[in-house]
Amino acid sequence: MCEVEGDYNGLECNQKIPVPTLNRKCMKCKEGAAVLIIRVNDAFCRACFKEYFIHKFRAMLGKNRVIFPQEKGLSREAPKKLRFMPGIIYIDDGGACGRSAEERQRSNALLKSIFTETGFPYFIVSLEQVFSLPASVLVPGTSDPDPSNLSYKQAVDQYVKEKQTLTEENVASAVAQLSMGDSAYSPEHKLALERLFSSLKTLTAKEDMLQTLRQHLILHIARENGYSKVMMGDSCSRLAVRLLSNIALGRGAALASDTGFSDPRYGDVVIVRPMRDYSSKEIAFYSRMFNVPSVIISGLDTKTHDKASIQRLTESFVTNLQSDFPSTVSTIYRTSEKLHTVMPPQSQSAEPASKCLLCLCTLDTKEDKASAFHATLVSEQLSQIKLQDLSLDAPGQSAEQCCTEGQGCGPGGCCSSNR
Amino acid sequence: MAAPLGLHLEFGGGAELLFDGVKNHHVTLPGQSDPWDMKQLLAWIRGNMLKERPELFMQGDTVRPGILVLINDADWELMGELEYQLQDQDNVVFISTLHGG
């Protein structure tokens, strides 16, 4: 924390600013009564907040230019309108979280009614269906350079409706075309899923596996239905937590794609995160104030204690730190923005690098002597070496052996004497 | 001796899981000489309403970081947070933004 640009010293003094409460005016329009404080001290009234929220979304999409190039001549309407036709997808992961069939049906029904209200095509898919995916889902598709394949059809008042479906709780991804989801699954798949998750001993592993499976399923549905983009609802706060958790999980090499605005590793389908500029507080307030319907669904880590998994621990660490140092999340976020996805050169002649089956990132397991991977291998070897008779004095080798568990070397004693 | 205070409490974002899944509660706080403030309300909630896992709702005297509080649809930071003095028929909302409930 000492490195936070010296900002936090100023912040510490400003922590509890004795402002005249109850009479605070919106900092933007200076007239309306403030209802919300975001960031450190920016007070907004309802109307200005709504405008700010919507504007940020548009700016995010416009700035990143990954989506929605304007089609000229198609419409006389205001140039800033977003033109895309989204669908909604919800993955029912109750099978992995231990929820009963009735509970799942109940929440699915609630969600279905919310989705139908929006008027967009929607897919409610159960996680069990990941077992029926063809193997081709594990191969990244080629990105289609022909933009005429993307179809754009929307007017911007649909945009506001679309915003309403991005809730924090669900993985709600808005994309580009149509169909109905099928939430039925076979009992073999159900059993397979349960067995898979019960074979994972730690909650950390389960959460990671859930994320991977979900990703595959979303990709598959997107591909199957002709969607080229998938929008995830990850907020700034969640992404900051994910960034740190992923580093702890050893996924440092994939940070840029896991937490950046766009994730191109799947080739034909691009994952984007337009909500990454919003803190959890902003999203929660917006949902509350403008009545965005939501359904609370227990997940794997609901009501678990702080140390149950790496992800949970990181979340509680970041959230607690944030309450004392309000620039925590934004600092992590700014740092993550500096990470860029390195696109490999597009030479067709070169053999495509092999990819990890689970996360579809390029394999980084080339055994470089100075890499973290090599260190992991060495640790693995060391912890598996059986304790051998010390009289078999192979120099160097026995130095390693006696330092492993249970031999009880004196301080620097036996290792140095072996030399 | 002040009159008893009627309040409307709401829990969202998963926080309701700690209160038997019930989102809306009408409560009446007993009358006392000093006005009720948020700090006392939280202590009262912990003592009288929380069914389980108090550490998932509160941390010390205040709510756990990650739980947002709205008083009459406004951010409680604008109202003085713990020092805000409750009035009859106030509406207090607790929204959890955390994964772990």
TrEMBL record, chain A:
Compartmental location: Cytoplasm
Predominant location category: cytoplasm
Pfam families: CTU2
InterPro entries: CTU2, Rossmann-like_a/b/a_fold
Any single GO BP term: protein urmylation
Family per record: Belongs to the CTU2/NCS2 family.
Protein role: Plays a central role in 2-thiolation of mcm(5)S(2)U at tRNA wobble positions of tRNA(Lys), tRNA(Glu) and tRNA(Gln). May act by forming a heterodimer with CTU1/ATPBD3 that ligates sulfur from thiocarboxylated URM1 onto the uridine of tRNAs at wobble position.
HAMAP family: CTU2 (MF_03054)
Protein name (record): Cytoplasmic tRNA 2-thiolation protein 2
Lineage of source species: Eukaryota, Metazoa, Chordata, Craniata, Vertebrata
Gene from which the chain derives: CTU2
TrEMBL record, chain B:
GO biological process, one term: tRNA wobble uridine modification
Keywords: Cytoplasm, Isopeptide bond, tRNA processing, Ubl conjugation pathway
Residues modified to 1-thioglycine: 101
Organism placement in taxonomy: Eukaryota, Metazoa, Chordata, Craniata, Vertebrata
Claim: Chaperone is one of the keywords in the record: no
Pfam families reported in the protein's UniProt record: Urm1 (PF09138)
Cellular component, GO annotation: cytosol
SUPFAM superfamilies with a match to the protein in the record: MoaD/ThiS
Functional summary from the UniProt entry: Acts as a sulfur carrier required for 2-thiolation of mcm(5)S(2)U at tRNA wobble positions of cytosolic tRNA(Lys), tRNA(Glu) and tRNA(Gln). Serves as sulfur donor in tRNA 2-thiolation reaction by being thiocarboxylated (-COSH) at its C-terminus by MOCS3. The sulfur is then transferred to tRNA to form 2-thiolation of mcm(5)S(2)U. Also acts as a ubiquitin-like protein (UBL) that is covalently conjugated via an isopeptide bond to lysine residues of target proteins.
Name of the featured protein: Ubiquitin-related modifier 1
